[in-house]
Design a protein that fits this description.
The chain has 11 helices and 2 strands; from the N terminus they run αββαααααααααα. It is mostly helical. It has a two-stranded antiparallel sheet with strand order 1-2. A hairpin with a 6-residue loop joins β1 and β2 (about 30-35). It is globular and about 60 Å long.
Length: about 200
Amino acid sequence: MDRLKQQMDFILEVDKLKKITRQTYLSDGSRKENDAEHSWHLALMCALLSEHAKEQIDVKKTMIMVLIHDIIEIDAGDTYAYDMQGHTTKREREVKAADRLFHLLPEDQAEYLRELWEEFEAAGSPEAKFALALDKVQPVMLNDASGGKSWTEHGVKRPQIMKRNEHTPEGSQVLWDYAKEIIDRNVEKGIIKAGE
């Protein structure tokens, strides 16, 4: 029962992920998505799009990775992709959060999820590379569907998006080509600033 209680306590704690609001709008532009919705969306994308991974991946492992990758934001908060000041303390905040949150679980599960989160952060394995590609492509797709609402609000420029996506092709060239078409089309429309 102690093990079950730890597991259930963790599951209850991560319900808070539903309250962490991201900067990306839902496809209809009606409101911003939350971290739980984002993670679910990535898991579904992984299940459906894994054939486009650049390397062979363990789909189950990658799905777990995307489901847990933002759990740390319960404590650390969401750092907007283009918030350079927020990124200076991001790693420190997230490691502290990972240490607390994953260790609510029984030790074996805590270690597994903590290591999986670090693997995602390091972006070295085929699974992490594909998970990160999904994490970068999904907001591009939603921004396009919402008419570029978040890009416009934040005055996002093409070079910022390109820099953020410099490693996306390592996870999936196919998904990157898809995203790049969207980016280029939105630059042409003036939704994304060409910038320098």
